[in-house]
Amino acid sequence: MSTDADRGDRDGRDLAAELASAAAGQVGIPVDAICVGCGRTRVKRARLEEIDQHPQVDPTSLEATDCTSFKHVCYRCGGATWWNPIAVLTGLLERERGE
Ligand SMILES: [Zn+2]
């Protein structure tokens, strides 16, 4: 279950390291997302089509509230679950693009 403590840890997380891990996935833009199954928050990659965005959209202009939930593996839940985007990680996105 989700706890406030889990969310309070957010500032202490290493988002870049989470993004670099295999659990984040291989393709898509970096988003901070919450698993609807267990409430865990993790950095995931989501393809634009998965979050109901046009493939040509500038991802740095996206708001998390514009993005739909997407399916991704949750290791705590032990399979694919739905994740709700809570933030588009534009800082990581720009770093990847070398901006
Ligand atoms: Zn989960």
Describe this structure in words.
Strand 3 and strand 4 form a beta hairpin. By secondary structure, this protein is of the alpha+beta class. It starts with a helix and ends with a helix. The chain has one domain. The protein has a 4-stranded antiparallel sheet. The N terminus is likely disordered. The protein is built from 3 helices and 4 strands, in the order H-H-E-E-E-E-H. The structure holds zinc ion. Zinc ion binds next to loops.
What is the element layout, followed by pairings?
Layout: H1 4-8, H2 15-20, E1 29-35, E2 41-46, E3 70-74, E4 79-88, H3 90-97
Antiparallel strand pairs: 1-2, 1-4, 3-4
The structure holds zinc ion.
Quick description:
This protein is α+β, with helices and mostly antiparallel strands and 99 residues long. It contains three helices and four strands, in the order ααββββα. It has one domain.
Q: In what order do the strands lie side by side in the largest sheet?
A: 2-1-4-3
* CA-based gyration radius: 13 Å
The figure for the number of domains is: 1
What general form does the structure show? globular
Element-by-element helix/strand order: HHEEEEH
Report strand %.
25-35%
Distance between the termini: 38 Å
Main β-sheet: number of strands, strand sense, barrel status? 4 strands, antiparallel
Provide the residue-averaged pLDDT.
90
Count of individual beta strands: 4
**Secondary-structure-derived class:** alpha+beta
Percent helix, as a range, is: 10-25%
**Which stretches are poorly predicted, pLDDT < 50 over at least 5 residues?**
1-9
Any ligands, ions or cofactors bound here, and which? zinc ion
Give the count of helical stretches.
3
